[in-house]
Design brief:
single chain, about 90 residues, alpha+beta, two-stranded antiparallel sheet, about 25% strand, BETAINE ALDEHYDE DEHYDROGENASE, Ald_DH/histidinol_DH, Ald_DH_N, oxidoreductase activity
Length: about 90
């Protein structure tokens, strides 16, 4: 059984709603470079800007702690913490 999806609406909070902005973004097939549909433009970048700023500040804080000495009970030993990237990671935000 196929469910009909309204082409000009967004599914928000369990209901189909009209987008606030009427601007549409074309959906392009990368194989043929032809437009196969349109998507409503969702203006939520200001919300994400604050999120990215917050985590960027946390990352800068980690850089400040690089090679910070670790206190040990014996003065004859010295220890430092060095944080290095593991590689490529994925981030999924709700």
């Amino acid at each position: 059984m196929a469910i009909r999806v309204p082409t000009r609406q967004l599914f928000i909070g369990g209901e189909w709603r009209e987008p606030i902005l009427k601007k549409r973004i074309p959906i392009i097939n990368p194989a043929t470079e032809q437009i196969v549909g349109q998507q409503a433009h969702i203006f939520i970048f200001k919300m994400f800007a604050g999120c990215f700023e917050y985590y960027a500040d946390l990352a800068e804080g980690l850089d400040a702690k690089q090679k910070a000495p670790v206190s040990l009970p014996m003065e004859t030993f010295k220890s430092y913490v060095l944080k290095e990237p593991l590689g490529v990671v994925a981030l999924i935000t709700p």
